[in-house]
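Complex record, two chains
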Amino acid sequence: MVDVALQGAAASQPPAVSRARVLTRLRVIDTAFHHITRAAAVGVLVVLGGVILSLASGALPALREFGFGFVTEQRWNPVTEKFGALAPIYGTVVTSFIAMAIAVPLGLLITLFLTELCPMWLRRPIGIAIELLAGIPSIIYGIWGLFVFAPFLQRTLQPALIDLFGPIPILSDVFAGPPYGIGMLTAGLILAIMVLPFITSVSRDVFEAVPPVLKEAAYGLGCTTFEVVRYVVLPYTRVGVIGGVMLGLGRALGETMAVTFVIGNAHKISSSVLAPGTTISATIANEFTEAVGDLYTSALIALGLILFVITFIVLAAARYMLLRIERRIG
Amino acid sequence: MTDVSRLPRTSAPTNGAGAIVGLYRRRRLRNQIVIGLSFGATAIGLGWLAIILGTLLWEGASGLSLKVFTEMTPPPGADGGLLNPIVGSVALTGLAICIGTPIGILAGTYMAEYGRFSPITQVVRFINDILLSAPSIVVGLFIYEVMVAPMGHFSGYAGAVALAVLVIPVVVRTTEDMLSLVPKELREAASALGMPRAFVIQRVCYRAARAGIITGVLLAVARISGETAPLLFTALNNQFFGSSLNAPTASLPVVIFQFALSPYHDWQKLAWTGALIITMAVLALSITARALASSRKAS
């Protein structure tokens, strides 16, 4: 290497001197590159620290003003500058819950299809098609949800739900009319489609990592496909599947644009999932640029901080579980 | 499976045979129901993709014309196109990639080469995976706090930095994965020739992992070109060409957001057209990235 480098240099100087010089230069370059790459790696940590610190400092005025009451107060009134985050938190939790309640069984069934039932040559195309759902930008889900999906639900599913559950005491409150089309149920359904590919792709990875011997043994005992998956594959991959579900949950909690289109942006807590509501991210997206006054801006940033902390915890738990299964399989 | 152990073993033969047949029927029925459901679930997933893409083509293609690419966004009621948001999106994405990619590649290099077993790498990998799925609107708030508020105005630069923050985790992840796949014999051979570490990485490992790293960058482009939330309060929007990226800058996703929620029919139509353009671009990018990655795997 040194000699290769020397060939480029003019041979005017005595070889010994330039050889030492080239070696030094190479060593300097090497050390510099080492430090630059390490600085970049540490930079990732700095970004995370920066996000937390800047959000915390931006949220400070609101948190100082309202204290812990910020997360238990429902009122959100920019005119009197009284802000409480309960309605957006409630909306975030409810929409994510609806999304997971639909996406988890759906995702596991698709995984079952892809890993056990689907003919080999179809697995790749169908797997890619499902993952393309994750590639579609969230604003597309939003515009589609607002113009196509919400009117469709308003005409079909929502009146049916209201009629169906009307006579049943508690459920009649959960599905109380009128059918607006937009609302928490619509947002939850759209979120379900959006997180479906995350759940499917993670559980597919862990399903495929199950040693074939285990499955073959179960089939050899006469188990049906369902029994193999239920009693052999799922217990073996449980941690990984839960990790995938948490990953999807993290996405659902923080999703912004799709929800903003169809949630209805009403700062109230309503027992009915058909009613308009709001989520943390939708509130920020809708109101931030129009927020006048430091306290209003600060309250919105405080919402962002709450969202970040919640998703951080969920995603960290997801990663921890996926790490555990990786270690066991690997 | 578990039911088998609960079978009455001591009952009369005819009775036992009947119970076994019944149990067999029940097991088979349950299996068929679940298989049917899983076919149904896959059909729902694929159908949903088809419906979304179909609607986009139906609503967006009718508005697709040359004017979309040559004229500025119109005021309500007038004719116009999407030239300035398209140019704005390309500029923001390009700048974000220029900022984010080098940092991402360098960080990934440290994690796969110099510090493969160091504790920093473990922590960075964990945090990076979390940032990969962190809500993008929070990134928008972060950049608002550190750039827009101190500068006093919205700007294209702030938007590009916000997008760059989203690029970094994607590139870090793929770079680290791809460099880890480079066989160690290559490194050993290069080191045996007397190459310093930095040269081994730059001249051998980067070349071996080039296709994979490019895939990562393409995935990052696909990820950010549809992002709206981080631009809402950084780059904001602009009805015209801004004087520079130092001014508020229009971008396709934000214009779609604004036009779709407007009451004007022709704005909504433009929003659909923009949505079609963005989706096609993003899907083309991610399919290209996939093809690159799988051709590498095959070779």
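Note: Strands of chain A lie at 76-77, 82-83.
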